[in-house]
Write a structure and sequence with these properties.
Blueprint: E1 2-3, E2 6-7, H1 9-17, H2 24-32, H3 37-52, H4 63-66
């Protein structure tokens, strides 16, 4: 079975050769599943931390990033 013109059997076979037990059915189920709540909250936290690295109008870093 192909999704969007690309088969998943070949990549799953390569993963199995590397010791990862994955089937094409479980791969397709994983692709259609929504992201976990923990993953979403972690991504939001990373975005907030990256925003602290933005410099102000004078080119200085924000104090939060300088002092931890």
């Amino acid at each position: 079975m192909k999704a969007n013109g690309h088969g998943v059997e070949l990549p799953c076979g390569v993963l199995r050769e590397q010791g990862v037990t994955v089937t094409s059915r479980s791969f397709r189920a994983w692709k259609t599943r929504a992201a976990a709540a923990r993953l979403q909250s972690d991504a939001a936290l990373v975005d907030r931390l990256k925003a602290l690295k933005v410099r102000d109008v004078h080119g200085r870093q924000q104090p939060e990033i300088l002092y931890g």
